[in-house]
TrEMBL record:
This is G-protein coupled receptors family 1 profile domain-containing protein. PANTHER family: G-PROTEIN COUPLED RECEPTOR. It is found in: Cell membrane; Cell surface; Endosome. The keyword Membrane applies. The chain crosses the membrane at residues 33-58, 70-90, 110-127, 147-169, 189-213, 234-258, 278-296. Belongs to the G-protein coupled receptor 1 family. PROSITE patterns: G_PROTEIN_RECEP_F1_1, G_PROTEIN_RECEP_F1_2.
Length: 348
């Protein structure tokens, strides 16, 4: 007897949630209001802080190098993540029941795309740092054109990864394979997605471990006469900043990816739904930690942030001739002031 495949394209989202034993409250509870309110607050912080990073890199010519272009693209990924979570906040809780299948796939696809973009950005940054550190350079000799080709490739792959479930890698025609955390996703896709990201994490950690051993070995061999101390400190400082970004990213996302893999492997005793929301909040918080790291680790970035914020404050009070001053212009102004001061003293 031939097996007939039955597809459920016309069923509601609630049908799949009931199939996976994932309940949706039909009315708003106090906990739902608290979760959405906190989520919206975090989303706005993520969007504002990463816009600040993007404008800082765009405005200050000191950041017009490959590593900062990649860090800027990472900020774009985090900004996209903030927008994806903002979209999620308005399509979660009791609102989930009203979603069509297509709307549900869009909601999840946005989050998948943002994570993939962040992971690929961090991988590109790791490769860039590997190239420059092994040559003991501050910035790589990679052309701007090549950097933007890499960025284009990152977003193309991320979009394709986010579209996989919509294009057919789902459980609409095989209810037994539906996952618990994402009831319209196939368990096999969750395993593939989680495993791919975890392997990428492992590669990045291996690359940075090799870099650290190399830097420690070279630092013992270098003397003050061979390499300027300030140059070495700048190279190592930028390396530490990037390592902190990677470390916090892995720390924030690994628990959620492990949970997705356990769900994909059909671990009935793991109680994945009990931890789902907590790990989602942890992953969301990662999107605004990078600007905080820049503030504490990068003096030029911190000064540029202050200039941008002061610019916004001045525009709020009224128009000004000097709404924004780059660090280089400030430096030139200080030089001119010092020259005029010396000339004045000489004439006297």
């Amino acid at each position: 007897m031939m097996n007939v495949t039955v597809c459920y394209y016309n069923e509601t989202v609630e049908f799949f949630y009931n199939n996976s034993n994932k309940t949706i409250a039909p009315f708003w509870r106090k906990r739902d209001y608290a979760v959405v309110s906190l989520g919206l607050l975090v989303c706005f912080i993520v969007i504002f802080s990463n816009l600040l990073v993007i404008f800082a890199i765009f405005k200050n010519r000191r950041f017009h190098f490959p590593i900062y272009y990649l860090l800027g693209n990472l900020a774009v990924s985090d900004l996209f993540s903030g927008l994806a979570y903002l979209h999620l906040m308005f399509h979660t809780g009791p609102w989930t029941i009203r979603l069509s299948q297509y709307q549900w796939f869009v909601r999840q696809g946005l989050i998948d795309t943002s994570l993939t973009a962040s992971v690929l950005n961090l991988l590109a940054i790791a490769m860039e740092r590997h190239q420059t550190i092994f040559n003991m350079q501050l910035h790589s000799e990679m052309s701007t054109r090549r950097v933007f080709i890499i960025i284009f490739f990152i977003w193309m792959v991320s979009i394709i990864m986010g579209l996989f479930p919509t294009m057919g890698w789902n459980c609409l025609c095989d209810l037994e394979r539906c996952s618990t955390m994402a009831p319209l996703y196939s368990r096999s896709f969750l395993v593939f997605w989680a495993l791919t990201n975890l392997i990428t994490f492992s590669i990045m950690v291996a690359v940075y471990t090799r870099i650290f051993f190399y830097v420690r070995h070279k630092s013992r061999q270098m003397s003050e006469h061979t390499t300027p101390a300030r140059h070495r400190e700048t190279v190592l400082g930028l390396m530490k900043t990037v390592s902190m970004i990677l470390g916090l990213f892995v720390l924030c996302w690994t628990p959620g990816l492990v949970l997705l893999m356990l769900d994909g492997l059909y671990c009935e005793t793991c109680l994945v739904l009990n931890y789902e929301k907590y790990f989602l909040v942890l992953a969301e918080c990662n999107s605004f930690v990078n600007p905080i790291i820049y503030c504490f680790r990068d003096k030029d970035m911190r000064k540029t942030f202050k200039e941008l914020l002061c610019c916004l404050c001045r525009r709020g009070k009224g128009p000004s001739d000097n709404d924004f001053t780059t660090l280089e212009v400030m430096s030139e102004t200080n030089k001119d002031d010092n020259t005029n001061h010396k000339q004045k003293n000489y004439s006297q």
